[in-house]
Each structure stands twice: as C-alpha cells, then as structure tokens.
Amino acid sequence: MANHYMEHYINGGLELGFNLHYCGTEQCVPSHSYGPAMRDHYLLHYVVSGTGIFSTTDCEYRLKPGDSFCMFPNRPVSYRADGDDPWTYYWIGFGGENAANLLKLSQITELSPTHAHAEPKRVEALFAELLRVSEDDGLASEASCLGLLLQVFATYLQSQAGTSLPARRHTKGRRDFYISQAIRFIQDNYQKHITVPLIAKQVGLERAYFTKLFHAHVGIAPYEFLLRYRIEKAILLLGQTNLPIQIIANSVGFDNAAYFGKLFTRHIGQSPFAFRKHNQTLL
In terms of domains, do 42 and 86 share one? Predict the structure, then answer.
C-alpha cells in the first residue's frame, strides 16, 4: 500500500507579516515516519483519521483524529504513523513576523505544541478547502488561503474564549491580546458612541474584570483612555483645520459641544477656542 500524498506550493507575494509556503495532505502507510528533522519555518499538521506519535526532544505525544501538532523553526522533531491504524493528516507551512504571536495567543508553544480541536469537522473542512484553493496561483488564491488558515486559528482562540473562564486562567499572552484588541477598537471607533461595556463585550470579557485588567496594563481606566484619545484627536483638528467647534466635537465622539468644551478645558487647562487661538497652524 503506497502513501497517498499531495502538496501545493503557495507563491507568497502578499506582504502581511504572515507568509504561507505550502500545504498538503497524506494518507500514510502503517509505521510511515518522518525525521528527526527540522524546518526553518512553522509546520502545522491536523490529523483527520488514524493515530500516530509526534516526538520532540523532550516529549512524545500520541495523537488521534481532531488533534493538531506544530513544528517550530529550527527545532528537530519526528513523527510516525501507527502500525495498525496509520493516520491521515493535512499540513500547512508558514512563517512571518506575526506568526509567532498568533501561535502564542492560541497557546501553541514549543512546550505545548499540540491541540485537541472541539470542532474537528469544521477544522477538517477548512483544511480541505485550503488545499483546494491553493491549486490556483496568484494573490487572490494566496489571500483566500490566508483567510482559511486564520479561520483555523480562530477555532483555537474560540476554544479558549468566554467570560466563564476564571481570570487566573488567562495567560499573559491572552491578557496582552485583550488589551491590544481593546485599544484597537477604541482607535477605530472613537468617533462613535462607544462605551466601556461595549468595549468589554467586543473583547469577550466581563466589564468589571476588563476594567481591572485594562487599568493594570495601561495605568488608567478604559473610559479615561477613550476620553484622552478623543481629546488628542480634537487637538489635531483644532490646530490644523478651521472646522467649527461643534463639528470637531461631533468628529471625536461628542454630540454636545458644550460638554466637549467642559471636558477639553478640564484636561488641557483652556477652552477649545482659546487653545485654537494660541496653537493653530497657519493655514
């Protein structure tokens, strides 16, 4: 019985900090093995059927359908199909400056390189579609493959998300992720009517825990961060445009110009009108 093997190379023309190299699938014969060997990039496998053993220099993992395992750059590993029930798996090789952080957030590390998926059929379908799409060349195909791989990683993140998890279960990598997502949400939506409960909901945390976590990492409460960010944007508009104060207030998330002026004066020490008079760039 011969191995059923298929692999497609991906051009890698997109510059997004996350590079795809190739993907493939193999239906292994009994006791088929690879390694010890290493790669200069990440290589993620997903087991569809059968069983096998994945070995690093420190540990040995017996894997089954629905499990995945990851090779890390320049770290020797080996893996072997079971003699009686050999596995079939998909794989994807990737790298880039953002790859390590995505794996870290997914809690896939050199010390814990395996993962048991809660939705194996969904993940299998994503890998199958990724392999199919990769048959075509071009940036559109590469972008589609990247999107599918990110959906695979979304299954890792979803298995860890949820406010029912105790705070102590959130690793430093996860906490950093929550804060960066909150800050990004504020920066993208400060012009809208966003609130702290909405920000907490967007990152998947209970409000009180989110507020405590944000303050511990940033040094100020999330509402204060939002307010300061809006004031900073207002300062730019006051100094670089002739827009009326009401329009500037609306543009940074305030419906009421008087309330905006009160908060601006409290933070800057002078009214928006006075600040503009003394600081406006010549237009």
Answer: yes
What's the pLDDT tens digit per position in 100-147?
Answer: 888 887 888 888 888 888 788 888 988 888 888 777 666 777 788 788
Within 77-212, strands assigned E span 77-81, 88-95, 114-116
Indicate whether 94 and 179 sit together in one domain.
Answer: no
DSSP 282: P
- Predicted confidence at residue 4, as pLDDT, reads 58
SS in 3 state form for 178-220?
A: HHHHHHHHHHHHCCCCCCHHHHHHHHCCCHHHHHHHHHHHHCC
Q: How many CB atoms lie within 10 A of CB 245?
A: 19
Compute CA 118 distance to the chain's CA centroid, rounded to the nearest angstrom: 19
Residues across the chain: 283
DSSP codes, 25-68: EEEPPTT-EEEEE--SSEEEEEEEESBEEEE-SS-EEEE-TTEE
Q: Which CATH number fits the domain that encloses residue 273?
A: 1.10.10.60
Closest Cα partner for 102 from 154, 143, 64, 144? 154
Residues 178, 53 share a domain? no
pTM confidence score: 0.56
State pLDDT tens for residues 182-208: 898 898 888 888 899 989 988 888 899
DSSP state of 169: G
Q: Is the pLDDT of residue 220 over 50?
A: yes
Q: 144: domain range?
A: 4-160
Report yes or no: 186 and 210 within 8 Å, Cβ to Cβ: no
Contact by Cβ (8 Å): 236, 230? no
143 and 269 share one domain: no
The count of structural domains within the chain is 3
